[in-house]
Amino acid sequence: MKFVVSDLDGTLLYSHNIISEYTINTLNKLVRKNINFAIATGRGRQGVQTILKQLGLKPYLICNNGANIYTPEGECIFDKRIPQNTVTKILKEIRKNNLFYSAFQNNYYFHSKEEPVENFTTRSLFTEIAVEKEEDIPDLNKIIVTNDNPEILVRLVKLLKDKFSSLAEIMLSQPTCLDIAPKHCSKGTGIQNLAKIFNLNTNDFMAFGDGENDLEMLKTVGYPVIMKNSQEILKASFSCVTLSNKEDGVAKYLEKFFNL
After folding, report:
1. What is the rounded CA–CA span in Å between residue 3 and residue 254?
2. Which residues cross the membrane (predicted)?
């Protein structure tokens, strides 16, 4: 085993932006044993910085569901985007259904002028642009839609997949969060690109995840591990299950597997 990759929300994190001391210590032991560690997340690089400070590590980052890869020094070595004409169609459909979007391209955050914007933790790290119309938004790394009612997002996923599945990757990263990524782009392709950089086979990778946007990553690696709190789509596909994120499931599994 040469590489361990973990999702963040619902997997490595105990709660939003919080990682337990137990998990921090375990990951540092893993790295001291010369096992590479990387993070694969639907978040942009800005949304990972507080976690990296807690960890005290500088891992490779697969961000925006594989649309971006960053070196430990912060250099972007892979950048894929949803074309502007596709972006416009998808955003118009979201607004037609009386929902709001957050749209990201590297350091830029776009939203509708009509939108009541949440003051999310990393908002100050982006150049924020409020647009009059969806046609004003360029090609993007990621679009997200959040809603406290999971049923609304389930309906939206079906609608968007029916219309745009040939143009973009559309999935639920959490029951209350819908992610839209460039076509043929996932955490799985992120791992394939990382394997090329290190001249490794993807069978040399272990990965941890809990959500639909982890599915391709888990299919890609030689050692897929899902959380006890995983979405049903993962439970139906993978048999290796660790404890939940609230029980330090990633750390407990690594400790036993690598004898840390």
Report:
1. 12
2. none
18 shares a domain with 64: yes
Coil, helix or strand at residue 216: helix
- CA 160/CA 84 separation, integer angstroms: 16
pLDDT in tens, the chain (260 residues): 899 999 999 999 998 789 999 999 999 999 999 999 999 998 989 889 999 999 999 999 999 999 999 999 999 999 999 999 999 999 999 999 999 898 999 888 888 877 665 655 556 667 888 888 899 999 999 999 999 999 999 999 999 999 999 999 998 888 899 999 999 999 999 999 999 999 999 999 999 999 999 999 999 999 999 999 999 999 999 999 999 999 999 999 999 999 99
Domain limits at 141? 84-182
**Residue 140's CATH number:** 3.30.1240.10
Q: The domain spanning residue 22 has which CATH number? A: 3.40.50.1000
